[in-house]
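Help! Submission page says 'invalid entity' but I think these are all valid:
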Amino acid sequence: MKANLDLPIIEPLQGPQVIATQPLLKTRLFNIEQQSLCFSNGVTADYERLVSKSDGAVLVVPIINDAFVLIREWSAGVGRYELGFPKGKVDPGETWQDAAVRECQEEIGFRPRRLHLLDKVCLAASYMDHHTHLVLAQYLDVSVSDAGDEPEPLQTLQWPIARWPELLAQAEFSEGRAYAALFLTLTHLGKIV
Amino acid sequence: MKANLDLPIIEPLQGPQVIATQPLLKTRLFNIEQQSLCFSNGVTADYERLVSKSDGAVLVVPIINDAFVLIREWSAGVGRYELGFPKGKVDPGETWQDAAVRECQEEIGFRPRRLHLLDKVCLAASYMDHHTHLVLAQYLDVSVSDAGDEPEPLQTLQWPIARWPELLAQAEFSEGRAYAALFLTLTHLGKIV
């Protein structure tokens, strides 16, 4: 039997109505609210959501000499050093391009001359509106490393692109969006088809 | 010049000491605390972190007839329908396998006979400890669809694996961890090398 390669039809759906929105709490970093929704079948339900305070984040895949430039940074969320790509939030008034260049300079001491937006992803669609621009950065010029807001110097290292499977196997390389950025980069560079 | 394909050395690092942990607030879904850390260079810094209330989540990639089985579900975080893989949290007392089978039955009405753990990823290492088991589910038996906790019936659809680039291009398919699961599945099935 020949496989059916047709794509399914994505029909427009009638979303629920927001009946009420109640701010639950704010901290320096987080903003949580509750939404009461009424679905088209009449069912109502309450949802807690984490609302971003910034215009999302950038995650930058810097490439030099056929290698990814990675950082190791203490990551309070998981309570250990995380190996990953430079990243940070898009500051007020910045574009994603501004933020990508700034994070490269602050975190790895390079200034990219070419940026390419690989995609924009969210973290957990059901309870967070946070989104991350995944950005490929190429043609890196050595730059004076701008001071970031890190409590200790970041360790940087170069990982040969061709050895990406071993990078994924590192326990310290663990963010889903970093996996996405890595695979999208390989696809963009024609290394996987 | 031949590219250097050696892997960098990942040296053990002396992490910071936790000086104090202060619960900031709890809601039904979220648990936020502040950690005061002292780094090995003597610098201290405070970090807010979102602490999971459950043993993480499962995201299941169900495959039938060379197609992914996807769901469309209202996602309050992003405020729209999200197209993605079945997922949900691992309930108390459950293994990731239990949760993967349960979510498949509840959300798509299939019971998988083979599960394979593709990887475990986190969402945002710097401020969340939440992790997701990415699980490939194969050999699906039609099952009575167990009642889940959804306010409206989920729409399910089948997407031919070979047409994965068009799936990534869908605006409604947007979670970084779903991208990761898709690419890891393609790698596992030998469809990309």
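Support: the input was valid. A stray whitespace character was the problem, and the output above is from the cleaned input. The beta strands of chain B are 17-26, 31-38, 44-50, 57-64, 67-75, 80-84, 87-89, 110-122, 131-142, 155-160.
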